[in-house]
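Regression test case RT-17, inverse folding.

Input:
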């Protein structure tokens, strides 16, 4: 499997995962471990510090990059400052942070 396929699989699993279903959460943890093992230092996460006064625009960007539902994206944004716990390639992480900045949020890459 390529790194890209694994990243997509992980994002799909995270979107499906529900804290009330331990099997889904365990599967997500295992997938993340596999991604880290295969991706090594190329995987990054994004830390969202604040959304300032652009909450809706920030939610849209978070949904686009994490592929979570509206409710989950809203909860992530409203929880700022927060580490968005989705692995991204370095390129995707930079693009995500750039789009967050354009949306009016404050964010940075986190290793």
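Golden output:
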């Amino acid at each position: 499997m390529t790194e890209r396929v694994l990243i997509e699989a992980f994002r799909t699993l995270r979107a499906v995962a529900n804290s009330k279903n331990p099997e889904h959460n365990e599967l997500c943890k295992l997938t993340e471990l596999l991604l880290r093992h295969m991706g090594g230092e190329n995987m990054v996460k994004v830390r969202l510090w604040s959304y300032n006064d652009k909450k809706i625009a920030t939610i849209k960007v978070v949904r686009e990059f994490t592929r979570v539902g509206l409710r989950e994206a809203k909860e992530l944004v409203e929880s700022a400052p927060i580490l968005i716990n989705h692995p991204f390639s370095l390129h995707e992480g930079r693009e995500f942070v750039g789009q967050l900045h354009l949306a009016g949020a404050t964010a940075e890459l986190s290793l």
